[in-house]
Amino acid sequence: xxxxACGNETPDRDAALIIHNADYSNKATxxxxxxxxxxxxxxxxxxxxxxxRLVQEKIDGxxxxxxxxxVDHPVIDLGKNALQTDDTSACECRTSNVQVAIPARVxxxxxxxxxxxxxxxxxxxxxxxxxxQAVVQCKQSGSEQWPQLxxxxxxxxxxxxxxxxxxxxxxxxxxxxxxxxVGTPVVINSDMF
Length: 193
Hints:
Elements: E1 2-3, E2 9-10, E3 16-20, E4 26-31, E5 46-54, E6 65-74, E7 83-84, E8 91-101, E9 112-116, E10 122-125, E11 129-140, E12 149-155, E13 160-166, E14 174-178, E15 181-182
Parallel strand pairs: 1-7, 8-14
Antiparallel strand pairs: 1-2, 3-4, 3-5, 5-6, 8-11, 9-12, 10-11, 12-13, 13-15
């Protein structure tokens, strides 16, 4: 299915599942029904398949294709697979710049920062603060509650992370928040980023 900027979901009736042979040639193609459901009966424990979807936003008049390939994947119900869009036509949205101060690291340069829960154009890291431009926060029309937003800021020397949680944006202005939630360092034994 497609999920818009405020969480509304619509079935992806154009999605398809391509089942591959061992040499990756195509064995079968199964298309989504009107509800966006794709089913493939098999007696095998594992299958290699690709999920193919059309991206809703065109680029230079061309509709891109989203392709996910699963190699020798266990045959299970994969549940809902949603392709996130930036569509706001069925949403209520507000826009603000967001300035995040980090009081505990006021003299340190922010190594990395990420805002979750809203779209934004750009951001600028600085010493002890980060500014996100054109943050667009959307909720479903008729809903009374705006979604929670969060910002995570990372530093080195010493390695620390500070976060902020907030829901209120100053529509059309600048929203100022403080990242005062201190991260807890953990060690993960993995080569993954």
